[in-house]
Amino acid sequence: MSDKLLFKESVRGIIEYVLKNGSLDDRFVSRGRAVEGTIAHSILQKDNETIYEDYEKEVALKHKFIINDINLLVDGRADGIIKENKRVIIEEIKSTYKDLSCIDSDYNMLHWAQGKFYGYIYCLDNNLQTIDIRLSYFNINTSEVRSFDKTYNFGELKEFVYFLVNKYLEVITVKEKFNKIKYKSIKDLKFPFESYRKGQRELAVNCFNSIKQQGILFAQAPTGIGKTISTIFPSLKSIGEGRGQKIIYLTAKTITRTVAEEAYLKLYKEGLEFKVVTITAKEKICLNDEVKCNPDDCIYAKDYFTKINDVIISLIKENNKFFGKDIIEYAKRYKVCPFELSLDLSDWCDGIICDYNYAFDPRVKLKRIFEERNEENILLIDEAHNLVNRARDMYSYQLEKSKVMTVNKVIKGKVPNLYKISNAINKEMILIRRELEEVNKDFLYHNVVYKDLIKLLRTFINEAESYLIKSKGTLGYDDVLDFYYIARSFIAVSELYNKEYTTILKQEKNEFIIKIFCINPSLNLKQTLKSAYSSVIFSATLSPIKYYVDLIGGDENSFRVKFDSPFNRENLLTYLYSLDMRYVNRERNIDILCKIINQFINEVQGNYMVFLPSFDYLAKVYKRYVDIYGKDGTIVQGESLSEAQKEEYLAQFSLENKVVGFTVVGGMFSEGVDLPGDKLIGAIIVGVGFPKVSIENNIIQEYFDTNGFDYSYTYPGINKVLQSVGRVIRTETDKGRVLLIDNRYNNPKYRFILPSDWIIEDYKLK
């Protein structure tokens, strides 16, 4: 039998998997337990070091169980081990807000289970026949401690531990049996098409070689190459050769998740055996009338933990595919929460399709997958041009003074201790605001962490815990809860603070804002990318590639590859009208712009999209266009569209209609929209896609110095333009035409960024 380690799990992981029961409940319980638990541990451990001559804290324990050819390494840390009068006591420390007189020795059997598991390993390692387990409960409010001791013999500990391990191994055994089938299917798997498209084989080979070297690959691969299948297929082949264990397909858009699912469906038809789950946001997949995840308001939350293990085993025995519709079907069948079901399935699946935030956002990332086991993961990051701004949002956070004032009003005269702290936070923000008053500005920024403010926010969190547990349903409760989470997020982001950050102070009318702003997210992203087995970062618009390498977390060792479009260059006709579309001159050019648009769309009949620089300019241009040429055959995008309104807008682009859709560059219709064939034959792009001038973009410009303007405005802008153009040609048989309107495209810098296979002709008004 091989000594190769097949599976690894923590003591806590096994206990929670086997013994956890009850219902989901998102109503407030202490969310700071990890921090407070650490505080409780350190206090009791320090006392024990004084009381006992022979005391060890945070003792690492591990044991390899070999059962039915499966090796399972289980590890963990005992909070403390006491040796006194020939007795050995393993102590587990638990923090609580509950009155200790309400806690008895049978308060929580999971706590005893953890101590008993450690006791078994310690007895085994030290040839002991009996051992004492101590549970010590520490009240965070009063600092009081209540302890319970039980003595166990080795035989009963062994029986208990093997019950847990064997129960856990039921699902492991299912997975191990499947692994043999999986690896054989990967070995036999053929590429799901008769031939490779131009550039497709090269992309797949680059992906395979990058994974082989456990590297990071940046790939610009235009629409039509087949990026999704060309990254998933070589990743599967890599896993088949023992390189990595999971494929994580990360996206920014729902539509891209669908494309990944379709790629797996093609591979299933070729005989692939590989379990894949799609994680959809809770708000989008919730089956309840309202997103209230507790047993009183949702039947899918009731007894979730009691049911879920049997559900998981049943599902993974019989199924490979757990996409959005599948998850909903199974959730309804077993009456379990679909979102939590997808998360629990992700532990047992070989592939995961999910949003960026589950991998990178410090507030919602799936730590079990992306921290504890990230070295097993092959990360495939699609539409990676979106990751720069998304990452900045993930690693930034702001605090608004009005939120503090609301909390003050709610708790004044009712919760004196908490009010004292929230009022101190308000005073500290007033003190910080004086920095603006001293320079007579509405904003300023500098690389400063306001430590006194952070300290007060931490104090607020600790004090608010008791209020939030005891005061559910009272007036203003939700306002305090909202600020509690704001404070936690602000602190979490502050802990990432380094030279890549700045703090922005802003006065907007009656609102004062302190924003921790991540200028360069590369270091934060790099932690996840580097710790993964390998990462493949790809998009149709990853140009210039150095910009994305710099900001997404690559370095000089990262692999880089760029592919030309596989389509006939004559299929896309590109034109340029050199009109001054700089912000200061836009207004005066509206009439001539309307004339250009009307002439272009009437030269070749069909459906067009017109992309304008902003909603404000869109409204003005559309109004003038309708005044001159009439409304017939035109539609215009509103600023805030529901999913239904978005679908209604896109439905107008049918083969029967001849419609001109007015929209914005960088908006919801400029990427992730698939209108193949004659559903869209042309696009008009007005301007160079510059992001809106803002404090944040100006900070980015200043930070990157000589590259600053390009990194903050030029490159993000051109990326939006390229995405908009990408709506026109979707398949090998598509033909279309594009008109760029802006004289800046004559600048060599812009021409260099644009695709080299574009043959741009000057466009003339008749």
From TrEMBL:
GO biological process: DNA repair
Matches recorded under Pfam families: DEAD_2 (PF06733), Helicase_C_2 (PF13307)
Enzyme class: hydrolase
EC number(s) reported in the record: 3.6.4.12
Listed GO MF terms: 4 iron, 4 sulfur cluster binding; 5'-3' DNA helicase activity; ATP binding; ATP hydrolysis activity; DNA binding; metal ion binding
Regions crossing the membrane: none
Keyword DNA repair: yes
Alphabetized SMART domains for the sequence: DEXDc2 (SM00488), HELICc2 (SM00491)
Span of domain Helicase ATP-binding: 186-460
Domain of life: Bacteria
Keyword vocabulary terms for this entry: 4Fe-4S, ATP-binding, DNA damage, DNA repair, DNA-binding, Helicase, Hydrolase, Iron, Iron-sulfur, Isomerase, Metal-binding, Nucleotide-binding
Family listed: Belongs to the helicase family. DinG subfamily.
UniProt protein name: Rad3-like DNA helicase
Organism (species): Clostridium disporicum
Organism placement in taxonomy: Bacteria, Bacillati, Bacillota, Clostridia, Eubacteriales
